[in-house]
Amino acid sequence: MIRFDQVVKKFGDNVVLSDLSFEVDPGEFVTLIGPSGSGKTTILRLLMTLERVTSGTIQVGGEYLSHMEKGGKLVPADEKHLRQVRKRIGMVFQQFNLFPNMKVLQNITEAPIRVLGTPRAEAEAKAESLLEMVGLSDKIDAHPSQLSGGQQQRVAIARALAMEPDVLLLDEVTSALDPELVAGVLAVLRQLAETTDITFLCVTHEMQFARDVSDRVVMFDQGHVVEAADPEKLFTEPENARTREFLKAVLDRA
Ligand SMILES: Nc1ncnc2c1ncn2[C@@H]1O[C@H](COP(=O)(O)OP(=O)(O)OP(=O)(O)O)[C@@H](O)[C@H]1O
Question: Does 239 map to a domain?
Answer without folding.
Answer: no
